[in-house]
Amino acid sequence: MQFKGKVAIVTGAGQGIGEAYAKGLAAEGASVVVAELNEAQGRRVADEIVGAGGIATFVHVDVGSPESTQAMAQATIDAYGGIDFLVNNAAIFHGMKLDALISVDWEYYKKFMDVNMHGALLCVRACFRSMKKRGGGAIVNQSSTAAWMAVGYYGLAKLAVNGLTQSLARELGPMNIRVNAIAPGPTDTEASRSIVPEVYMKEILSQMPLSRQGQPEDLVGTCVFLLSDASAWVTGQIVNVDGGQIMRP
Ligand SMILES: NC(=O)c1ccc[n+]([C@@H]2O[C@H](COP(=O)([O-])OP(=O)(O)OC[C@H]3O[C@@H](n4cnc5c(N)ncnc54)[C@H](O)[C@@H]3O)[C@@H](O)[C@H]2O)c1
């Protein structure tokens, strides 16, 4: 219960990896805001945390909207008095259009980038003042090994998340706010099952030292570490949690 009394926002926590992060932080004693676009799923996760004896509230958010992210931060402060941790996990992933940079519909591309690239920055802009007021805080951004795989706008947005992580680490370090990222490898969620073709997944896995897909729970320990005092002198890092995928031949 190392996070007892701490307040954590996890975006996109209604399913998949975000759900595992929210439940993992709640198990460490944090009061968790399940910040989600999908109300039914967000409420389900918050209810399950409370049912298991944890502290959680659902807050509706569209991370691509400045107004909505400000409202998310305010709702958190109203509910729990401030913000210590922010996990920027939300992204358009499940059901995303698969197209090329040179042909994707421009309006779709801009919406995608608003959520997957600017979403993390908008959430940080909404939350950092409360962290500063409380003497510091910690932020984890969700990147991907796809950042380095030249896979169109999905990878481009994750590469931007890496850059954002490093620049924000510089800007927020003097306020005692640390900013790191997790770059998961192929992780078994409903979203990845719907997007990555099975033969492509087999090919990826065959080249990895730990030749299996990750489970969302495989990522939780690193998230807890990056938010905790055990990483008090760690900032601006992109931590691969990927079964060694980054070393593929
Ligand atoms: N699953 C993988 O293999 C994998 C690998 C590397 C990185 N990632 C990243 O991990 C994160 C979670 O992945 P997942 O597999 O659980 O995907 P997912 O699609 O199941 O989860 C994304 C969540 O974000 C929410 N969301 C989408 N748009 C939003 C918005 N505008 N505002 C608020 N919430 C919004 C969705 O409703 C959903 O609950 C994503 O950032 C994804 O890019 C996933």
Notes on the protein architecture:
The model has no long low-confidence stretch (mean pLDDT 97). The protein has a seven-stranded parallel sheet, with helices on both faces. β5, α6 and β6 form a beta-alpha-beta unit. The longest helix has 21 residues. The chain has a single domain, classed as Rossmann fold (3-Layer(aba) Sandwich), CATH 3.40.50. It has nine helices and seven strands, in the order βαβαβαβααβαβαααβ. The protein is of the alpha/beta class and 249 residues long. The structure holds nicotinamide-adenine-dinucleotide. Nicotinamide-adenine-dinucleotide binds next to α1 and α7. The site of nicotinamide-adenine-dinucleotide has 31 residues, from α1 and α7.
Domain count: the total is 1
Radius of gyration: 17 Å
CATH uppermost class: Alpha Beta
Small-molecule components bound: nicotinamide-adenine-dinucleotide
